[in-house]
């Protein structure tokens, strides 16, 4: 990804007085033209990188100016390293290379302390077990994003409707525990958010597109869903045999033990199909106390599930009259 490449170039310039554009292009597997665009981006960020012509020339920092190695503190480098570790858990060879480069600028006398800082907290975003098709989709979408290539796929909406989509991909988003793609849908003529697990037959087309600037304040995965009109307070009760589940999913300070030995708590969530599924996942150890309309809806859904399996349950036998 571009941000990885830009940071890598800056780190290389910290350690080398000059480097050839062709060498950088080969190193990052991009064109020389792309490298020069990267240099413009770095200059825009306030780091004066220039090109020296002639024999022995190359790309370097402007004469008379040297970027202080401490522009990023050891703590900040450790934080960047940790963030890259979490992203690389979804398969990122480029991230591994960048992590090695960050490690290389740490003086030998501080290596042990740096290693300690980067292992104090590890965030692994990948699920348990093999990711399989999901990892393949992420890899293909990363290529399409890097190349500005249009993609096509079959999509199943949350309501179960199937459609074929052609999309200009813009951003991969990890929200909660699910991956999404934000892109411009040519069928809807607007930006849409697509859940990767609902994609089928994903292919990268030969057509390219010109990327637009994204209005960052209007992105659909930001805090808009937390606005008061989208939030529903819910009062829950966990039976004593479900206390371990309550302690696993909710903050201990939210849990109030009651006289039965169970827990009562109040939480706030957006009311949607995800919420119903989440509450039903606790089975019989959870009861929705309030509000009444959610309690009623959960009862209807649970009744529908029970009806599907009613024919498989043992039927009561008629009682025999006493002789």
Automatic annotation (TrEMBL):
PROSITE patterns per record: HTH_DEOR_2 (PS51000), WYL (PS52050)
Presence of keyword Cell membrane: no
This protein's UniProt keywords: Transcription, Transcription regulation
Domain HTH deoR-type intervals: 2-57
TM spans (from-to): none
Domain of life: Bacteria
Protein's UniProt name: WYL domain-containing protein
């Amino acid at each position: 990804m571009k941000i990885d490449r830009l940071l890598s170039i800056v780190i290389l310039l910290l350690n080398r007085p000059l480097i050839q554009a062709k060498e950088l292009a080969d190193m990052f597997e991009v064109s020389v033209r792309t490298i020069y665009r990267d240099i413009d981006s770095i200059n825009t960020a306030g780091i004066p990188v220039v090109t020296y012509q002639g024999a022995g020339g190359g790309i370097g920092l402007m004469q008379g100016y040297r970027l202080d190695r401490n522009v990023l503190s050891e703590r900040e480098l450790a934080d960047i390293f940790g963030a890259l570790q979490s992203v690389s858990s979804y398969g990122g060879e480029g991230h591994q290379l960048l992590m090695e480069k960050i490690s290389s600028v740490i003086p030998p006398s501080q290596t042990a302390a740096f290693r300690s800082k980067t292992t104090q907290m590890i965030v692994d975003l990948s699920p348990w077990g093999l990711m399989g098709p999901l990892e393949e989709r992420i890899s293909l979408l990363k290529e399409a994003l890097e190349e500005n290539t249009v993609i096509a796929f079959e999509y199943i909406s949350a309501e179960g409707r199937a459609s074929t989509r052609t999309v200009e991909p813009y951003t991969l988003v990890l929200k909660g525990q699910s991956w999404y793609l934000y892109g411009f849908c040519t069928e809807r003529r607007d930006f849409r958010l697509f859940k990767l697990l609902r994609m089928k037959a994903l292919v990268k087309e030969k057509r390219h597109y010109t990327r637009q600037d994204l209005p960052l304040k209007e992105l659909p995965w930001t805090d808009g869903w937390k606005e008061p009109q989208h939030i529903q307070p819910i009062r829950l009760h966990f039976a004593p045999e479900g206390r371990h589940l309550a302690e696993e999913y909710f903050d201990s300070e939210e849990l109030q033990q009651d006289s039965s030995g169970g827990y009562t708590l109040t939480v706030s969530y957006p009311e949607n199909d995800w919420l119903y599924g989440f509450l039903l996942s606790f089975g019989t150890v959870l009861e929705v106390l309030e509000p009444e309309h959610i309690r009623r809806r959960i009862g209807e859904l649970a009744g529908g599930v029970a009806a599907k399996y009613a024919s498989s349950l043992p039927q009561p036998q008629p009682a025999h009259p006493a002789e």
